Amino acid sequence: MTISATQVKELRELTGAGMMDCKAALAATNGDMDAAVDWLRKKGISKADKKAGRTAAEGLIGIDSGLREAAVVEVNSETDFVARNDAFQEIVRNVAKVALAHDGDTAKTAAAKYPHSDKSVAETIKDAVGTIGENMSFRRAAKLSVPAGIVATYIHNAAAEGLGKMGVLVALETSGNADAARAFGRQVAMHVAAANPLALTAEEIDPAVIAREKDIFSDQARQSGKPEAIIEKMVEGRLRKFYEEVVLLKQAFVLNPDLTVEKALKEAEKEIGAAAKITGFVRFALGEGIEKETTDFAAEVAAVAKK
Fold first, then answer.
1. What are phi and psi of 62, to 5 degrees?
2. Residue 154's Cα: distance from chain center in Å?
């Protein structure tokens, strides 16, 4: 199988490994990018254990909140310039309002009536493409609510009130002081923005992810030549470390790294005046997971010049 320079370049960007190592990894895995990343990790060559989601789309994340509930949406545009457009910002605000009223369900939100209009959200966005002059799309929505307590919100890189490049919701159940709970919940939301946890608890992590990590840790440990019993303990230790890195409650709290988020919550209960429990979180980063075509402007000019 022929391995292209583009594949090698992509794997280098994902792992930080050298060109020849990347080429060898792709050759060994028949060009499978995910398998090649694992191959490099098992060999101890990869400098980056986690693939960074490449932000590819522009637009805005919007948040709307009500009593003990909040919704977050992502509306994409082609350029950041449009994200600063007042008309586009108003659309994102209204989409967030509709999402809050429709349980954060993306399909239901798209089909629902746009505020003060006979048209749906999807139709309104389609019409706005002609007005604003750029392709736009409503990508996703989510909502959190609690029977008692608060849903804290945080917007990172804010472009306007409730709008920005990243939005986080954190649900905190408690019968205690709402203002104190909201203040702590916002701190946790800021932590989520920075630390990007995979799940609230270890039990909520996708079993396939854990199996993959175990496989990689086992291969790494076997290269030490130690007995299987020792290797098993080494893998258990690596998994504990993995949970500390990706499970919200086990992560070191960004605002006080001496405490885990779980312990920081216990401390916060003194101010809240009652038991408190984080029941969920949502983190939307603009464009994550969407690949955007990049063009080599110099190559384009050279190609035109040859015509």
1. -125, 145
2. 14
pLDDT, tens digit, for every residue of 153-198?
999 999 999 999 999 999 999 999 999 999 999 999 999 999 999 9
Which of 158, 222, 218 shows the shortest CA–CA distance to 193?
158
Alpha carbons 116 and 113: distance in angstroms, whole number: 8
The three-state secondary structure class of 226 is coil
- Pairwise CA distance, residues 225 & 235, whole Å: 14
- The DSSP string of 30-81 is TT-HHHHHHHHHHTT--S-SSPPPPP--EEEEEEEEETTEEEEEEEEES-HH
Q: Give CA 169 to chain center in angstroms.
A: 12
Nearest-5° angle of CA 216, CA 218, CA 219? Answer: 65
Cβ neighbour number for residue 207 with a 10 Å cutoff: 8
Give the separation between CA 114 and CA 300, rounded to whole angstroms: 41
Q: Cite the residue boundaries of each domain of the chain with CATH code 1.10.8.10.
A: 1-52
CA 9 distance to own-chain centroid: 24
Burial class for 30, CB neighbours closer than 10 Å (0-12, 13-18, 19+): exposed
Tens of pLDDT, residue by residue over 26-52, are: 999 999 988 888 888 787 776 544 433
Q: Which fold has domain 58-199+260-285?
A: Tetrahydropterin Synthase; Chain A (3.30.479)
How far is the C-alpha of 170 from the C-alpha of 174, rounded, in Å? 13
Give φ, ψ of 31 to 5 degrees.
80, 5
Q: How far apart (Å, rounded) are the C-alpha atoms in residues 51 and 291?
A: 13
Residue 283 burial by Cβ neighbours in a 10 Å radius (0-12, 13-18, 19+) = buried
Half-sphere exposure of 11 (CA within 13 A, CB side): 31
In angstroms, how far apart are the furthest CA atoms of the chain? 74
| CATH for the stretch 1-52 | 1.10.8.10
Look at residue 270 and tell me whether its pLDDT is greater than 80. yes
What CA–CA distance (Å, rounded) separates 123 from 131? 13
